[in-house]
Amino acid sequence: MDNDSISVMSHLLDYYSKVPQERIYLHTDRPYYMVGDTIWFRAHLLDAATRIPVSRSRYVYVELYDQRADTLVQRMKVRCDSNGVFANAMFLSKTMTSGSYTMVAYTQWMRNFGSDYFCYKPIYVTAKTGDDRYVSCVEAPIALQSSPLLEVKQRKGQLLIRMSDASESDTLTCVIYGGGNLVETPYIGSRVLRIGMSRLRPGVVTVAMIRPRDKLVLASCETQIASRDSICVSMKSQMTEGKKMPIASTLTLTDQEGRPLKGTFSVSVTDYDVVKPDTLQPTLSQWAVSRRDGVYPLADMLRGRYPQMTYPIETEQRITGRVKGTLKSKLKNPHLLLVNPAEGVRHEFELGDSSLFSLTVDSPEGTTWLLEGTKKSGSTEMVELQVDKQIPPTVRLPHYACQTGNDLSVYVKQSNQQQMYAWNGVVELPEFEKKGSKKKPKSMNYGQLEAPRNLYPNDPRIEHAASMETLLSQLGIYCSVGEDGHKRIGGIGQIVGKKYVDNVTETDDEEILAILPQNVRSIEYFSMNHPQNTMYGVRADIRGRIPGVLFIFLKDGSEIEKRKHLLSMARISPLGYRYNMEFYSPQYPKTDKSDYTRPDYRTTLYWNPSLQTDDAGEAIVRFYSSDSSKRYLVTIEGATEDGRPVSWQGLLR
Q1: Which letter, b or e, does each residue of 624-644 get, where b requires 16 or more Cβ atoms within 10 Å of its Cβ?
Q2: Less crowded by CB within 10 Å, the N or C end of the chain?
Q3: Does pLDDT of 5 surpass 70?
Q4: pLDDT mean over 453-466
């Protein structure tokens, strides 16, 4: 191999190391859910060039969108664990409507390359019996780039490559990259280059002809290498027939040649009579083969031109901004005070000649920070504190098609029964009978009318909400973005005409959304088209719809900071990471089960986002059967340590 070809390869490897790219895939325990359910998920983060699982980015963002209203329902931040696994749970509100929803996953680093490379996972949420639809993502097939100068064919297990206008004296370098491949070989002009397909991994690959002396790309095109390998999974199970009985299954993962597959995989076990295999959405293996790996401009790679990155690899949480003087005055050696009242954390920093600051913080979900900028003397006069805002990306949701398929009536029936006994985590045994009624708190709105939708004082949803946007979604009120780019309360489905804070009219929606949920005492909402809405001064629009009326009441002593500028103090609540959630699987005794009178209608019986196989490719799955399950659907997703995608589904009887 000459020095020129070595230089070509070194340029590509150097670009991969300096501009790494990521791909992300979401695996959920089920493809469809009931309102009030929990979505257990794992985000598989892979290196785009090698497909090896990575955790360079320590945080993954997962969002849930209402497809019909095109509005954000939830946004959460997931931090990887000690094994580099991004997994957590998303709770669906009881007030959600049936329809198609989209889960979106990405990292901050992925935003540098556009939202087209985010992961979009369609799910269907049902709220009534007989709603037996599920969704499939309608995507156009990938358009492979071609070149009139370069002819690439696949025939009899070989990749045939020929440059049409090359002379016999030309010695070029042929490079094949993409899909986890990186191959370079000399090419003699006008001849046919034959490369065995066994050397290439499946996926979309780019074939390029390069002139070594000046690193000029003469021609390039794309071709798709079909998947040839199939994953072999064997199960040896120990099962006891009956209800609430232990089940243990040893899974052995190997390739076609019997070599064990070692890695960390996500595994779900569901009731097969309720959850059927999903044939509409691509598995991780199909997703890896049918999409491009990332943005790799070959000409820039060869010439050492690197793009300017706007978003860094997020390895830690930061609060950034600056302390400046008002009226263009300059501060000398300003100070910054950082306080976390909940944990009693207090730090003071001297910024020196620079007024900019970047603070490393640990912010779980719901954390509030207080910042104060001062002069060197400690005075806050003529001091302005500016904190950089976290602006989420703009996503383009794909189009979905609802199709009739799996019968969800059994699933809905079981979910309804399950919710009767475990709504909001409260266990109600069937042998106990409730008598009497709970006294409702008195209405606080100035009309003294009882609202049809309420969040009463001491409601746990108020204390645990991460933002006002999340809190309002509990009442079926979602936020939309206006033409001016500002958020407004209400959108398709619920139009809010009047907003009151402590019975005082509030016209600025962003002021309401800036309220901390922990400062809220109660919320009363007269939904759209309610007959009492006209009493509060709202009138029907031209379509005959009567907007809703929203009342928000704050706790005693709470204050809402409305001044946006010339402030030396700021209270911020950044989007914090959600603590890891562990899937709960009930444990029943080996013999006597007479004390367990509560019915068990679980749909997902086992979920493990980080099941590790040993050197022999083996792992053990243990769970207990429910009262109705007889057959079980086992789903495995992930990638091996050497970058081989693994997707498998099997039936356990």
Answers
A1: bbbebbeebbbbbbbbbeebb
A2: C
A3: no
A4: 81
